[in-house]
Specification:
cytoplasm, Fumarase C, Chain B, domain 1, Fumarase/histidase_N, about 525 residues, Fumarase C, Chain A, domain 2, disordered N terminus, 10 strands, mainly alpha, HutH, Histidine ammonia-lyase, single chain, three-stranded antiparallel beta sheet
């Protein structure tokens, strides 16, 4: 639940239930503050009472009075258990490589806090409140690219966050300044925690990083796939293709919901097009269009349905308490389990990388048709002002092709790989973190490919004058021109125009421009 505060920032309240997609985005990307609800604090207290009781019992309990992983058979005496937790976090904070993006770290911190709030982990309330404090004050631990096998959860990334709670390691403050964690905590008026029994393990054993990246990718893809419909409409229009294939009665005989939504968007976006109307009469001798134009709803729709499946999995995971062992407070016991395994999340992360690659592939094919004089129906080669002297958008398509080729490599699944670890105790892992990292690159690539299609199609629509585009696609052309992206003319430095188009797509401005004309596009 998100509530307003007097300074107009938002605070997300974490209870014992699932974090919503919107709340995760608010905390990860918008910097919202966080607080724990009263019911969450009560659940935390109940679970902690169970851990304290087991810690004082003579019978060994995994994660409380034993070592970890392949070292679980060693019983740890009471006087060494605080050291056990510190050693666990320090040794597991073994990441390497570039820093992970701030939004990813905030997402994984929020999701770990959400699991703590369920009352199944056994941390003390002060430890959970300190994690909430880091999020609220914008303190972001430095997490490295490599270190997680997606099982037992995202161990190394979460350990870097737990290290900051101990006042150790490096963080970035709200302004992005790199500093020791102890200094950042002190500046925010926060005191580091000395971890007690079970707490170190509870802070690092979850699928939070890969899940956070999944939720953000779903949000991005929901925007990008509707923008891809806009790009496809512009290409259908600019290449003198027909809109008849998008009729609802044709979609109804193959009732995939995503396909119907995409086709309906294309119909709405092309309504009122002077370009389409110009070749709709009996004199048109085009029997049918190329697959990349005609089958856009089938591809974009299948992508939507796959995103919806991924969202279903993400919703289940958001409602989960992922830890090992877990505290069953009502029964007064702690049990080992395998819920930390990232397979459910890893699979859909890989599915979405396939989606990004294929939607980008069909977008690139639509773009390429504009540039080939034999297939673009009367437009100049490469949309050049003076072909031969000018190259037009020739190399923009090269850029698309290079990205699509990369996306095909990124579509190779990570989740089918497994490298045993921890002396064969952890002998099958999900590689979900790796799947999430490559999906982020794939989503970025899709955004760039769609932006180049929009850029190229806008130039083609200008070249169709005096025929007029539809009000919706015309609004997108006007958006580009208003952003300083010029229309047809002699060759100029193209990279800045591509980056400007990428920014308009990535910010949602292209989608908003079309929706201001036709209303919300269907998902």
């Amino acid at each position: 639940m998100t509530t307003g505060t007097s300074d107009l920032t938002q605070t997300v309240e974490i209870g014992v239930g699932a974090v919503s997609f919107d709340d995760l985005i608010a905390v990860a990307r918008e910097g919202s503050a966080v607080r724990l609800s009263d019911d969450a604090l009560a659940a935390i207290d109940r679970a902690r009472a169970v851990v304290d009781e087991l810690a004082g019992a003579p019978t060994p309990a995994y994660g409380i009075s034993t070592g970890f992983g392949a070292l679980a058979t060693r019983h740890i005496p009471t006087e060494m258990r605080a050291q056990l937790q510190r050693s666990l976090v320090r040794s597991h904070a073994a990441g390497s490589g570039p820093e992970v993006e701030r939004e990813v770290v905030r997402a994984l911190m929020l999701l770990r806090l959400s699991t703590l709030a369920t009352g199944h982990t056994g941390v003390r309330r002060g430890t959970a409140e300190l994690l909430a404090g880091l999020l609220t004050h914008g303190i972001t631990p430095v997490v490295r690219e490599y270190g997680s096998l997606g099982c037992s959860g995202d161990l190394a990334p979460l350990s870097h966050c737990a290290l900051a709670l101990m006042g150790e390691g490096e963080v970035r403050d709200a302004a992005g300044t790199l500093m020791p964690a102890a200094d950042a905590l002190a500046a925010a008026g926060l005191a580091p925690v000395e971890l007690a029994a079970k707490e170190g393990l509870a802070l690092i054993n979850g699928t939070d990083g890969m899940l956070g990246m999944l939720v953000m990718a779903i949000a991005d893809l929901r925007m990008l796939l509707r923008t891809a419909d806009i790009a496809a409409a512009m290409s259908v229009e600019g290449q003198l293709a027909t809109d008849r294939v998008f009729a609802p009665e044709l979609q109804a005989i193959r009732p995939h919901p995503g396909q119907a939504a995409s086709a309906a968007n294309l119909v709405a976006l092309l309504a009122g097009s002077g370009v389409v109307a110009s070749h709709r009469g009996p004199d048109c001798n085009r029997v049918q269009d190329a697959y990349s134009l005609r089958c856009s709803p089938q591809v974009h729709g299948a992508a939507r349905d796959t995103v919806d499946h991924a969202a279903l999995v993400a919703g289940r995971e958001l409602a989960s308490a992922v830890d090992n062992p877990v505290v069953l407070a009502e029964e007064g016991r702690v049990e080992s389990n395998g819920n930390f395994h990232g397979a459910p999340v890893a699979y859909v992360l890989d599915f979405l990388a396939i989606v990004a690659a294929d939607v980008a592939s069909i977008s690139e094919r639509r773009t390429d048709r504009f540039l080939d004089k034999a297939r673009n129906h009367g437009l100049p080669p490469f949309l050049a002002d003076d072909p031969g002297v000018d190259s037009g958008h020739m190399i923009a398509q090269y850029t698309q092709a290079a990205i699509v080729s990369e996306l095909k490599r990124l579509a190779v699944p990570a989740s089918v790989d497994s490298i045993p670890s921890s002396a064969m105790q952890e002998d099958h892992v999900s590689m979900g973190w790796s799947a999430a990292r490559k999906l982020r690159r794939a989503v970025d690539g899709l955004m760039r490919v769609v932006a180049i299609e929009v850029l190229t199609a806008a130039r083609a629509l200008d070249l169709r004058a005096p025929l007029t585009p539809s009000p919706a696609t015309g609004a997108v052309v006007a958006l580009l021109r208003g952003a300083g992206i010029e229309g047809p003319g002699p060759d100029r430095h193209l990279s800045p125009e591509i980056e400007a188009a990428v920014a308009l797509v990535g910010s949602g401005a292209v989608l908003r421009a079309a929706e201001e004309v036709v209303g919300p596009l269907r998902w």
